[in-house]
Design brief:
The strands form five sheets. A nine-stranded mixed β-sheet has the order 6-4-1-10-11-12-15-16-17, sandwiched between helices. The chain is built from 19 helices and 22 strands. A hairpin with a 2-residue loop joins strand 13 (297-299) and strand 14.
Amino acid sequence: MAGAAAEQRRLATVVESWRERAVLVVGDAMLDEWRFAESERLCREAPAPILTLRRRITAAGGAANTAVNIATLGGRALLVAPVGADVAGDELHDCLDRAGVWDRTVSEPHRPTPVKRRMLAGNQILLREDSGDPDDPLDDDGVGRLLTALSCATEELRAVAGGIAPTLVVCDYGLGALPAPVRAWLVAHRHRYATVALDAHDLADWRGLNPTVVTPSFAEATRLLARAAAGFGAPPAPARTGGTGLHLDHPPNDPADGPSELVVGTAPGGVGRAPTGPTGEPTPGEGRVAMTGDGLSVTGAGVTVNATVGEGVDRAGLARARLAELRAHTGADVVAVTLDTEGAIVGGPDGAPRRSHSTPVPASHAVGAGDAYLAAMTLALATGAPLPTAAQLAQLAATITVSDTGTCVCRREDLLDALGGAAGGGTHPTLVGTGELDAIVADHRRTGRSVVFTNGCFDVLHPGHVRYLEQARALGDLLVVAVNSDSSVRRLKGADRPVNPVEDRIALLAALSCVDHVVVFEEDSPADLIEAVRPDVYVKGGDYPPEMVPEAPLVRRLGGQVRTLGYVPDRSTSAIIDRIRAQAATGLATTGDPPDDRLRPAAGMPAAPGPEPTPATPTPTAEHLGRIT
């Protein structure tokens, strides 16, 4: 596990490097209110529980929670957002002060602070009451003061950072804090920010921004793709064009600034099988979203994406297939499609999708987890971290915040503790059994690590194997190698194989720094292990395309991708054994000496001293020759 420990130390170095990174957050700030109650009887007037309030807590929500996460992760967060001059606004200011966020919010006396109030009994959310109407727009005076605050905050952060351009995070949840004039200002002043992250319910409003990273939910991503497929606007322009125009227009019946998530479910008329998981919030006038085999189709009732074509189509598969289009439509360098309990699919300019996983938790535990994800992703990219590193830290930050009910906030100390725990003395052994592999992989995934899986006999370990395994390890954060047992090798390769028993084979593999875990399997196929591990990347050696790998359909059904890596020329187990046999046969023909495994040197090596060989059968058997080392 030396390689894993080094990886965790590298990740911790990235977390340390983003300390005091200047980040400006702008968007819809709101207050989250949690009311915890108990219920022991029903109301006589109606079949409803009688609740006794025991505890009430408040927390920053929306853009304010993103700013809080940036501050608690170690960055320097400054928030610009309209906040009402009301009790909820006062509580929100208190939340920002406690977290160390630089509060540059703009007071709006005639516009209430948005609030999400949740009533719980036994940690079960019974109802949610939302206040703050997106139909209450900022007046001209409010827009002017917000633009002034944005300009001043940008220069304030630049001055604090010694002239370095700050990072910008835009959180547009359709509640009216970012009307068209504010969006236009941000697009026109994009050059003032080094890194720009965008989390928007309606991505079509932000095409001209050319953000560094966008983090849409599955519903938000599908909505954008569906609009393009339905013909709203021109075809997508290449990413990073620098233009200010939006290439997708709103349909006539779509409110300009309203909530924009679509429901993930069966479309009207019962089209297909709906994916599981939480649903979004529908926009008035638009249809529902399900999944379709080719990615998209449009019905008269709205947009339909359905899974009738093959079991392997799921939200992760659809997101992976559409990453390039999402990058083109948004102009973003990086797209991270978040899938709530299923993790995220992330893609960058290299076109290689990356899958991260999450731990399923009750919905009341995951409120605001996306804000933690966005904060960590932004900080990592702002410090120049590679995309795989940023994605891993973002998933880890979101995962470790969902242990309890409430609005999720990730602290820098918690993130470092999670990394230290994975790299410290409590690490898992390299050699593991099939029964414990599930729990070990799940433990790694809780720290945001992606899993690469490969399998083989690895009979006579040679440089081709080592290079192959190093390349496989580079495709993710954790490499699991499954090794055929001796009986399995005999069935696959013949009675004279393996040359080396399984104990020797796994010991050599475990000694390689690129290998994290080694497991032995008895079957001819690793299908059961693949089901258990659910690898993000499944790797096989060979020059054939991934489609010809027998395990490919299974891996893709589980949400992973398949990669094939070419062999090193003239470096194969069979070729090495054939050379040994040929040299042994030549030596026997010349000297007439019988084979003796104890004394036979490897090619080019001097014979070790030892007793004289004992005469044996004149003709060597295949078993003798097969075990020459």
